């Protein structure tokens, strides 16, 4: 693959840079560099307003059809925007779930009516989404989910009951896409449906989960007869598993490249610390820093190589390698800082950036599909190895 950008791409890059330079000022200047992993609470209202500013500029859903608010941008233009956004240290996005997961899923599996209803508000930065997948006992083994959906014979609405967990930004979201079992007695991947439901309604209770970082990005969400309209079932009823897996494939796409620019900035901060405190003179630490730099370059080349790839293992390989790399970076950041890295900087004892990086990256090899699950997918679906026995434990 030719990784060089065309003249047209570079013109687009210049447009992105200029827009970000002009708009990351005034009321939004305070949010620059905030809202990253473990810091989702920072300047949230400003970042929500920033989402609307992005919508006004036409920077949400870049590849979507123009009739739904997109620009019909090329794949490389999407990459460029993500890269420049990260380099500008623009605020952490508050609607990743809506733009990068739900939006492409509705485009791929939704009806024309669903596209017209749900895509434009996302493109305008008006409606925020969260994801209702994981449950207690059904995280990595998502097909074991027990949340149920039963149809109201009078209205045709679906009544959802059950519990979801690790629901990012549920306390801020307007809507949730949620998996529920609609065929009683069905097992594993069968009989599951994909619903779109408003969060502001009776029958939904949200409880925050305090993380190692002290913040509460994640939540438990309890459903007790919460309603989803029948016309808000995405895909065929009882066939939601295929929709859910399609959504997870979208998660590993262009956004991974923008994420790696963020990783690059984090690595550079660790290198700068090593130079400032003399840790760079330690041969073992210097070798680890160099190895991290090399591996990040490999991650980028692999991400570019597999953009748009139909290979079912590509998303799992990407998640496996970047999650592991980022977790090692968190440990490296603390090791470079030495004993002092374990101390709080000052009252009121908020985490330093290296501490936040170290603690949050502990989750990288779990959320979005654990390393163990990714290895199973690669082994079974790509290498054709026998499926792992899934009998009951004795």
UniProtKB/TrEMBL annotation:
Keyword Calcium among record annotations: no
Keyword Nucleus on entry: no
Domain Acyl-CoA dehydrogenase/oxidase N-terminal: 6-126
Domain Acyl-CoA dehydrogenase/oxidase C-terminal: 238-383
Keywords in alphabetical order: FAD, Flavoprotein, Oxidoreductase
Protein family: Belongs to the acyl-CoA dehydrogenase family.
Name of the protein described by the UniProt record: Acyl-CoA dehydrogenase family protein
Source organism of this protein record: Yinghuangia soli
